[in-house]
Every structure is written in C-alpha cells, then in structure tokens.
Amino acid sequence: MKILVTGGTGFIGSHTVVELQNKGYEVVIVDNLSNSRAETVNAIFGITGVKPLLEIFDLTDREKTLDFFMRHNNIRGVIHFAALKAVGESVEKPLEYYRNNIDSLINVLDGMRENNISNFVFSSSCTVYGQPDELPVSESAPIKKAESPYGNTKQIAEDIIFDAVEATPLKGIALRYFNPIGAHETALIGELPLGIPNNLVPFITQTAYGLREQLSVFGDDYNTPDGTAIRDYIHVVDLAKAHVVSVNRMIKSKMKRDFEIFNLGTGNGYSVLEAIKSFEKVTGKKLNYKIVARRDGDIEQVWADPTFSNNELGWKAEKGLDEMMVSAWKWELAYRQRSQEPRTKSQDKRP
Ligand code: UD1
Fold first, then answer.
1. Tens digits of per-residue pLDDT, 247-276?
2. Which of 37, 197, 224, 296 could be joined to 202 by an S-S link, Cβ 3.0–4.6 Å?
3. pLDDT tens digit string along 166-204?
4. What domains are there in the chain, each with its CATH number?
5. Of all protein residues, whose CA lies closest to atom 27 belonging to ligand 1?
6. Residues 6+ apart with CB under 8 A from 111
7. Residues having CB within 6 Å of any atom of ligand 1
8. Do residues 184 and 328 make contact, with C-beta atoms less than 8 angstroms apart?
9. Best mutation site among 84, 126, 198 for ligand 1, i.e. most ligand atoms within 8 A of its Cβ?
10. 335 is catalytic
11. Global pTM value
C-alpha cells in the first residue's frame, strides 16, 4: 500500500517514513529539500533496509504536483508534513509563509481529489490553542487568535481541510503536535536545524557539543513553579507512530467522523529548567546557560490532555523526557562525528 509523505526527508517526516516502512507500507516522498537533505533516504535505508522513492520538487508548483499525482495513481493516503515552521521568520516573511504552507496544501488536496485519493493526515500544532484557559488542553478547547503567521497557517489549513471534507469525499485527520524532540535510536536520523537553532533541544545539544557558547533560558518570571515556561515534550518516534495509526484508521474505515483532530502529547509538562536538568543528568554534561528576558510570542505553559487520542487511536506516547534527551544527544554526537569524516561534494556542508 503506497503512502505519499510530503516533507518526508524532514525531522518528523523521516521518522514517520521509517515507522510506515516498519509496518509494511510503501512510501514515496516529495520534498523540496528547503530544510532537509536528500541523503536522508540513505539513512532511512540504513534503518529499514528499504530506500523510499524521493521526488524533489516544490508542492507550491501546481503543475508539478498534479503531474506527480497522475504518475502515482495508486497512492492510498497522504501525510502532509511539508511546510515552513520557524515562528520568528514567519513574522518577518508572512507572505512567504502563507504562500508556501497554504498553496502547497491546496495543490496536494487538488491532486488527491483529481485522483480519487481520500485519506489525508495533516501536521497541525498545539499552537492553535495559544495560551489555553484550562490545562491540560483537550481538543475541544477554543482556538485562540494566532500569535504568528506560522501559527495562522495551521489554523487556516485546518479550516481548509474541514471545508474540503464537507464538500468532497476527502477524509482528514489533523494531528496537533506538542513539542517533538529526540531522535531515532540508531542516531541515523534526527533534527537538523539550519544555522542557529530556534528550538530548545537542538540548542541544548549544540551548546553541550561546544558549537554554541551559551544557552539562553527565555524568562524565569513566569507563573510556574520554577518560573520558566512549561511545555509537553514528546519523543519524535512516539509522534511518528501516531501517524501510522492514523493512516491505518483511515484505510480500515474506523473513523468516527470525516474530519478528526487529535492531540499528540504525553500529558506531562516540563519547565525549561527541568529539561536542562534532565539533559545534564542523562549525559553527565554541565550546560552553560543563563537566564535572559522572555522571548516575544512565547506562551507561559501548555501541556496536552491526550485522553481522546489515547482512547480513540489506541496510541500512547511511551518515552519519557530522559529517554528523549539521551536520543537527542546521541544523534548530535553521531551527526557531528559523521560530518568530520571525509566527504564527497554532494554531502551536506552545514555547520
Ligand atoms: C514553537 C512554536 C510551535 C512550533 C514549534 C516548531 C510557539 C508558541 N510555539 O514551539 O508552534 O510548532 O516552535 O518550531 O511559537 N527556549 C529557551 N531557550 C532557547 C529556546 C527555547 O529558553 O534557546 C524555551 C522557550 O522559551 C520555550 C521552550 O524553551 O519555553 C520551548 O521552546 P521551543 O523549542 O522553541 O518550542 P516552542 O516555542 O514551544
């Protein structure tokens, strides 16, 4: 059974490809490599023994997208990861974010409609809840005004899918991710931010490795037990598995409604300082960090109520924070080591 994974060479996409292949799915990836590398398919081969087909083009190109669907008319489902995701950048380049994230979504949905493909899984985000009034946050919590164009693209995308589901045979599952971190246990795939990382865990691992001098902890005056902001960190492999469960659910016609939404989190919130302590404990490395001012646009605290996804999907996040940190560190070390080995011209040149 063939599944299209857009953005399949990226962080969450690559882990999902592995889990799909582990369950016997055939995967074709479309990616424009704007924030990932073609070599990822070799790493996936190293894990599963199967190299997924990779087509490199931009899904905002309507003709190329429709042509792709014409050539792959036996696709049973689509998992749509491909998107820009840097919150700060989206504030500076809103039109690029809307064009990229919305045009590509519409083109993919069009291609699916023209080829009678009805199963669609979408990468959404807990950012749609903003700072929730009640914690833990469940799927029925109100959607708050988006804090950034990036966040808005996720809200608009959910609306577009909802309307398309109403009007066409499309079926959709939107998965609202909390904070995905960690890496595959083989350390062959993981998170590879371009340049200076925005997200906490890549910044932690790069600081511990010596690539960054100091980690800034953004604010210790939040209304939380230790004053630092709280998030629900979830291991990327747990997250990836939920996508496979979602695809199965659609293909086996187990959906209760034609558009379903699920929180993907562990249900546990950890502060920035707790995340740092966990990292230090499991790696034995002392992190150089200092408390600085809050980061614009950050919310104080959010963690998931995963009850609905646990019950409905029969899925549960299994890995704890320590395990997430170990795998993130193992990946950082392995990636840096590989980068120092003699390389060919085509290989990645990132710092
Ligand atoms: C953000 C977005 C989320 C998006 C995700 C993907 C918001 C509210 N959330 O998550 O929608 O899907 O990025 O990129 O915009 N921190 C530090 N120092 C650092 C980096 C982070 O203290 O150097 C803190 C942050 O203030 C935050 C926590 O660590 O409290 C997690 O930050 P991060 O990893 O960037 O994720 P979010 O901001 O939660």
1. 999 999 999 999 999 999 999 999 999 999
2. 197
3. 999 999 999 999 999 999 999 999 999 888 999 999 999
4. 2-181+235-264 (3.40.50.720)
5. 229
6. 65, 66, 68, 69, 117
7. 85, 87, 125, 127, 151, 179, 198-200, 203, 215-218, 229, 231, 272, 295, 297-299
8. no
9. 198
10. no
11. 0.96
